[in-house]
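Listing S7. Sequence submitted for prediction.
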Amino acid sequence: MYMKNKWASLGATAAAVAATLGLTAPASSAVSTDSASASQPAGKSSNPSPERPRIISPIVGGSQVPNDAYPFMAALLNKQTPGGALKKQFCAGTLYQPDVILTAAHCVAHLEPEDVRVAVGRTVLSDSKQGQVRQAVSFQVHPSYDQEEISTRPGYDMALIELDKPVKGITTVQLPTPGTDALIRPGAQAVAAGWGMTDDILEHSPDRLRQVTIPILSQAECKTSYGSDQFNAKTDICAGSMGKASCSGDSGGPLLRKVPGREEPIQIGIVSRGGEECASQGTPGIYTSLSSKKLWDSFV
């Protein structure tokens, strides 16, 4: 398969900074100028209808993002949903390669590629002059992800979207080296970004991209909140605090760390799932850990 062959080539390259920071970049880090319960993922729809999926993981307690702050951000748009991009957006993602988007498996597992378009480099969804829009041509869902058994076999919530043509002039997102944990230590501050709901009761979704700074939690805290049957310690991490979290519509978007001395943030996670109420006490957000060696080793 094209996506599998493309993925196989990615592990062979790394950014020059890897030796000192434990980081790695996708094969092409720059392009030429020519975003229920823990068992229900954020953004998963049990019925693949054109309606915007309900995601249990918006940016609550956050702030607006200025234009071009995160140019690698991607908005997943359902072509079957009436209206503009603000109505069509159902999940997020990041530019992994010039023609590949990194997102959550539950965002696309129930859809067909022809129904999905992707807006990359757009901060305000309704502003069609921002960013570049591409058509999805194929999905590669992590082979260990089980959409039907997510409540008993959690984790591996990751997928790649192949685009019809490369995105130009936008640098791809930076990722951590698999098997390292320097960027996910408990207590460290991370940033979640997306167009998800800012209130899970009123169900208000913003037009402008938002972000929130949240603490990374220990695996013991995650297990206390969700139990081992809903949290996979090998592929998941938790982050969030009361009043601050990702939420519905943010699924597939990034959890980022900013490293001193580096301008570009590092994506350490993918928004996956959470509790029934966004940003409620005792129910942090669950993110697919991009530092997980188990995650990448089985993605072939």
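Caption to Listing S7: primary sequence and predicted structure tokens for the chain studied. The CA atoms of residues 138 and 226 lie 33 Å apart. Confidence is low (pLDDT under 50) at residues 1-58.
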